[in-house]
């Protein structure tokens, strides 16, 4: 029951254990799940936020239904790399989840992923698909969760291909030691 960096999170997974990506919004929680091989993220739904306990119960049910053992939670870091009230809220939500292993039937593990610009990137993509505003509003949160999770999965694959020890110096946010929370070449900071 801990907050880990991505490589530690992967190492803690049971064989064929899946990851779930979360996009924590004020009104909804977007959900995405990985395949057992940790290659592809797929959007799976949203949870309409009410009270923490009810949100946590729905999340636990979604995790159990999909054999998910750990979470990659999008961390809404400011563009300058600092953390504001939204990051504090995400960290608090995650901390509270970890205090309730009885909901999950196991002790979940969590890693954070820099989600800067994930929602806007997903919205641009959906506009390119000529999707109506109403339809975009219905799916943006789960698509953002998939975008967050896919970034983390891609980073895990890079870590597997990298020389031994190259990812061991990352903190629980996926940042290299000494980085201030800015882009680590993954998440939304890379490639845009």
Secondary structure category: alpha/beta
Give the % helix.
40-55%
Given as residue ranges, the uncertain stretches (5+ residues, pLDDT < 50) are 162-192
- What's the mean pLDDT score? 79
Basic shape: globular
| Major sheet summary line | 6 strands, mixed
DSSP strand content: 15-25%
The N- to C-terminal Cα distance equals 34 Å
Number of strands: 6
Indicate the multimeric state. Answer: single chain
Biased composition (Gly residues): 183-192
InterPro entries: RNaseH-like_sf, YqgF, YqgF/RNaseH-like_dom, YqgF/RNaseH-like_dom_sf
Subcellular location: Cytoplasm
Family: Belongs to the YqgF HJR family.
Please tell me about this protein's structure.
A six-stranded mixed beta sheet has the order 1-6-5-2-3-4, with helices on both faces. It is globular and about 40 Å long. 41% of the residues lie in helices and 20% in strands. The chain starts with a strand and ends in a 31-residue tail after the last helix. It has helices at 6-12, 52-65, 85-98, 101-104, 118-128, 133-161, and strands at residues 2-3, 18-24, 28-34, 41-48, 68-75, 109-114. The longest helix has 29 residues, at 133-161. β3 (28-34) and β4 (41-48) form a beta hairpin. It is found in: Cytoplasm.
